[in-house]
Design goal:
472 residues, alpha/beta, Rossmann fold, N-(1-d-carboxylethyl)-l-norvaline Dehydrogenase, domain 2, 3 domains, six-stranded parallel beta sheet, 19 helices, 42% helix, binds uridine-5'-diphosphate-glucuronic acid
């Protein structure tokens, strides 16, 4: 039986809320602190602010047993916990670097309540050296060095699959410069690394099992900080890379899905994050690429590669907009159905969503839009300025109704299950412009659609045609 550890998680945003819930799920007692009193009240009443698989069940269970509690009182939480995870926002400042003022404020507040040994853990994505700053801040507030350690335990969860990613991780990175702190952190994850969690009948299912345990990687705090930024920047680079390859494919009439498959079969490259589209978005990649670039610049290291990654990402949205325009000749007074508002499928998050940027470009060009999304309509309504030519609908077929074309902007699995024949007759003209390559071009052609997508030939051959098949 693993030891139950008293944990505080500061911040109830994506990472904080999921981490707090999952720490309770693996047997720890968790206090989740947020300074937004209204949010804490709503969380205590069982309201869940984000759309995330498994979160409602797990939070419901652990909140009613008292295993996880929400509070605004960071002093009490610090006093009652052995380990304090900082999971507050690190937004992008105007220069591109991460704004660490929330982390700084939390560190000072924690310092005021330290009377026995505590391990403070950075969970937010932060630039290298943040660890040192937190340590200095706590020392400046008069806390003896022997009473605390500052460590780094980056989180790699993705929105939409956050609970699964947390409980079935590819790796657990523990950055600690003291053995004592490293041991305590390792003990927190012991239910996962020993496999005992996966043997429970009520465990959240996922890729890990008692026979395939997540590896733990112990590093210095600086290396752990770099691992997080470097991983996100690398994944963003992979996406920009395949997007340029997709543009090349369009120039020579080849299929980017075939090229990505051929590349991805090389184990050194790997097949994931090679889906061409309209560019990456979300609250992490754009901010983290900019912050990593800024860190390199500050340290005198030439990392202009990241500037190119960002530039390609911007151009990809513009290029897709031009594709819509050239399919329809002019956009003024054209009626477009739009599928997708969130920055990717499976989430209601619209932060830095390429879909919203493209919608704005279409509206500016005079098109009128009826947009559908399975989860993000309410958030998008608040984000997009009200516009006489912009409507929303809960029904994807209504979005397509009498439209001059249907534009797909988010990779929701729901869209791949739409009745294409019905769509074909709902649209005024059977034109689908798909920024996420959700449909089979061959099938779309057979159904009579003019189907434009990203990096795939206009003369469509089935994806599994002999030329692309892996023959034994
Ligand atoms: C990302 C990372 O994947 C997580 O590992 C990390 O923990 C998280 O940021 C974070 O730092 O908190 P997330 O922002 O949830 O997770 O989203 P991703 O699934 O990585 O997708 C990011 C963007 O890239 C989306 O707009 C998505 O549509 C796009 N994308 C992704 C592509 O265009 N092509 C792909 O092949 C993959």
């Amino acid at each position: 039986m693993s030891e139950s550890i008293a944990i505080t998680v500061v911040g109830s945003g994506y990472v904080g809320l999921v981490a707090a819930t999952c720490f309770a799920e693996i047997g720890h007692r968790v206090l989740c602190v947020d300074n937004d009193e209204d949010k804490v009240n709503r969380l205590n009443q069982g309201e869940i602010p984000i759309h995330e698989e498994f979160l409602p069940e797990l939070l419901g269970r652990h909140r009613s047993s008292g295993q996880v509690q929400f509070t605004t009182d960071l002093g009490r939480a610090t006093h009652e916990s052995q380990v304090i995870f900082i999971a507050v926002g690190t937004p992008q400042s105007q220069t591109g670097n991460a704004d660490l003022s929330y982390v700084d404020a939390v560190a000072s507040e924690i310092a005021r309540s330290i009377h026995s040994y505590k391990v403070i853990v950075e969970k937010s994505t932060v630039p290298v050296y943040t660890n040192d700053w937190i340590r200095r801040t706590i020392e400046r507030n008069g806390v003896s060095r022997s009473l605390f350690d500052v460590t780094s335990n980056p989180e790699f969860l993705r929105e939409g699959t956050a609970v699964k990613d947390f409980l079935h991780p590819d790796r657990i990175v523990l950055g600690a410069d003291s053995e004592k702190a490293a041991r305590l952190l390792a003990a927190i994850y012991e239910p996962l690394t020993s496999g005992c969690y996966y043997e429970r009948s009520d465990a959240v299912p996922g890729s890990r099992s008692a026979a395939d345990l997540p590896p733990i990687l112990q590093t210095s705090t600086k290396a752990a900080e770099l691992i997080k930024h470097a991983s996100n920047a690398f994944l963003a680079m992979k996406i920009s890379f395949i997007n340029v390859v997709a543009n090349l494919c369009e120039a020579v009439d080849a299929d980017v899905e075939h090229v990505a498959k051929g590349m991805g079969l090389d184990k050194r490259i790997g097949k994931r994050f090679l889906s061409a589209g309209i560019g990456y978005g979300g609250s992490c990649f754009p901010k983290d690429v900019a912050a990593f670039r800024y860190v390199a610049q500050q340290l005198g290291v030439d990392f202009r590669l990241l500037e190119e990654v960002e530039k390609i990402n911007e151009l990809q949205k513009e290029r897709f907009f031009q594709k819509i325009r050239s399919a329809l000749w002019t956009l003024r007074n054209k009626r477009l159905g739009v599928l997708g508002l969130s920055f990717k499928g499976g989430t209601d998050d619209i932060r830095e969503s390429p879909a919203l940027e493209i919608i704005q470009m279409l509206l500016d060009a005079g098109a009128s839009i009826c947009a559908h999304d399975p989860a993000a309509i309410e958030r998008a309504k608040k984000e997009l300025p009200p516009h006489a030519c912009l409507q929303f609908t809960e029904d994807p077929y209504e979005a397509a109704d009498n439209a001059d074309a249907l534009v797909v902007l988010t990779d929701w699995a729901e869209f791949t299950r739409l009745d294409l024949k019905r769509l074909r007759y709902t649209l005024r003209y059977p034109i689908v412009i798909d920024g996420r390559n959700l449909f089979d071009p061959w099938q779309m052609q057979e159904l009579g659609f003019t189907y434009l997508c990203v990096g795939r030939s206009s003369q469509h051959t089935p994806v599994e045609s002999p030329s692309a098949k892996c023959l034994p």
